[in-house]
Each structure stands twice: as C-alpha cells, then as structure tokens.
Amino acid sequence: MTTSLGVISSGRGENLRYILHEERAGRLPARVRIVLTDQPDAGALRIAKEFCVPCHFIDPSNHRREEYDQKLIAHLEAEGVELVVLTGYMRILSSLFVRRYKDRILNIHPALLPSFRGMDAFSQALEYGVKWTGTTVHIVDEDVDHGPIVYQRPVPVLENDTHDSLKARIQRAEHKAYPHAIKMFIEGWPKVQGRKLVWQREEK
Ligand code: GAR
What we know:
The protein is α/β, with parallel strands linked by helices and 204 residues long. The chain has one domain: Rossmann fold (3-Layer(aba) Sandwich), CATH 3.40.50.170. It contains six helices and nine strands. A seven-stranded mixed sheet has the order 3-2-1-4-5-6-7, with helices on both faces. Helix 4 (95-100) links the parallel strand 4 (83-87) and strand 5. The longest helix has 26 residues, at 163-188.
C-alpha cells in the first residue's frame, strides 16, 4: 500500500528533498502527490519541480485563515492526500484544517518538545544552556508545537556551538528523522489517546 502525502512548506524544502529521496529509493511506502507553499520563492517549489511533483504557490494575501486553508484543502483533496506533512510551514493552521485532517498532519520541530516551542528553537536552546536538544516529529493539533509526539532524535550541544553550527547539526538529524518517522507512522497508523499513540501495525 502506498500512502498519498501532501507536503506544505514555507521554506528551503530540504526536509522535502530527503523525504522524496527516500520515496524514490523505494524505502518509504508513500508518494508525495503535491507540494503547497505560501511563499512564492520557497525552495520547496524548486525541489518539487526537480522531482516532477505537482506544486503550487497559494497566495495568502487578502484571505482570512479559514478561507486560505480551504484552498489548501481543495488541492490536497484533489490529489487524494491521506497524510499531510508540514516542513517548515510558518503559518498556524485553522481548526477547520486540523479537524479535516484530524491526527493525519505531521510537523517537525527543531527541538525536543515540550522544550523550546515557537520561533528560533536553536537560540532558545543555546540561551538556556542545555547540553542536549534535538528534533521532534509530532502530530499537529490546534496548539502550536504541541500535539502527541511520534518520534524524537537527540542532538548534543557542543561547547563552542554557534547558532549556525547547532542549527546545521539539528537539521542533519531532521533529514534522517522525518522520513523515518513518516515510515513508522504509515506502517503503524497510530490511534491517538490523549497524548499517547497506540500503534496498530495493520492496514489502515
Ligand atoms: C526545519 O528545521 C524545521 O524543523 C523548522 O523549519 C525548518 C525547515 O527546513 N520548522 C519549524 O521551526 C516549525 N516550528 P526545510 O524548509 O529545509 O525543510
């Protein structure tokens, strides 16, 4: 069984590249059907084109959040998307969107949640002085960087780390962690019970 993915990104799209790489290598039982972005110059658009995946810039100007999300949903539904994957999507999803894809939206955050939610998790970790940080793949609920955790990968903070060196180390970890977590998720299709996931390990 191949699961249809829809990726939404605001940024560079490097996570998308690694997901597509694993998919094309036959190591991910999934197919990225569509890439959507709210930024006209998002790197994700270029990467989608490189891999011949349909992609669209959806202009957020002059739209209320729900109207905008309805447009995203229309594209995702047209492609039969079963699992939505956020990679550096910087807009908060409306309840409408979260309810439509309830427990079927994944996000990656560059810290070990619940530490360092929100913007610039790298600076937050450096300022706090933690010795370990990392990356978290979680299910998206209506609160930011909050939903049940699917997978985490720790990353050390080194003595002389700068913002950029820590960011690069965490992002290298993300490039392995996200495809791994997506595979686990698709193969296990967990039920959400509170903050816990109950893995089913059977067909959807
Ligand atoms: C990733 O580091 C991801 O964790 C972060 O944006 C980057 C996207 O990189 N997401 C967040 O901070 C969301 N809270 P990419 O565009 O190269 O995949």
